[in-house]
Amino acid sequence: MKLQTKIPIQKQSNHLIDYNSKVLLLGSCFVENIGHQLAYYKFQNLINPFGILFQPKAVEALITHAIKEKEFREDDIFFHNEQWHSFDAHSMLSHSSKTQLLFELNKNSGALKQYIEDASHVIITLGTAWVYRFMATNTFVANCHKVPQKQFSKELLGINDVFSTLKNMVNLIKEMNSEASIIFTISPVRHLKDGFVENVQSKSHLISALHQLLNQSGPEIKGLHYFPSYEIMMDELRDYRFYKEDLVHPNNLAVQYIWNRFREVWVSSEADEVMEAVEDIQKGLQHKPFNPNSEAHKKFLQNLDAKKTRVKRQYSHILF
Fold first, then answer.
1. What residues contact residue 231 under an 8 Å CB cut-off, 6+ apart?
2. pTM (2 decimals)?
């Protein structure tokens, strides 16, 4: 008896992710789920240096600012609710100190540019086509930072707008790093605050524009890929037991399932042995002894240090 429809996905034949890869992850909260899995297994990665970005215009702006070496100045930030904020960044970067916020914005933007230059893989996850425009400056924002709603207009990006935005992202990255594989995916998180019908419409705009880009890219833009995380959630995991209590976000079981599917397709089988060794160490680090001063625990720690040394001897960048 067949109880699940499984999406056929072929393993990539080349340019797979291994322990020499550098993976840049940008976009919605789902990209952080994949990024945290890569971080757990100690792959080299950089996850959302400006925080979670839900819509394509925000990701485009981030990449543009980094590559063109925009310097964030005082007129790029604002004070609200006792903190300084940037409309280009998530509130995780907001700070009570104006100087500290500007320092973090410029430092992270510089780090992003360097990572774009060095990245072997860039994973971009798109969450929604709904965007907010700050009416005072007529510019799109990445985050409203709880500024009164009346100061923004809400818009749905058309398919052509999303297509142009994505194409510009790809061109910017490829001009700086032509060898990087760019993997697009649509977040399975449902943006129900926009409305049930509106969420589906939004996702459909993202999917249509993205596949238009993939179909039209041609030989002049190599290394563009699509991973169907949204489709896996909708079809393979078609049950509310795979959602958190809010019935909006995938739960840990779903995230682990989609990660395993991603690993099947994109992670080199040669990395399996190191991943197993890293996971063994990670579990050891989480171990809580009954008696920290016992001889058994001291021996356990010695064995754990030996395992760390063996892994680090192979890949010096791995730190525990």
1. 7
2. 0.94
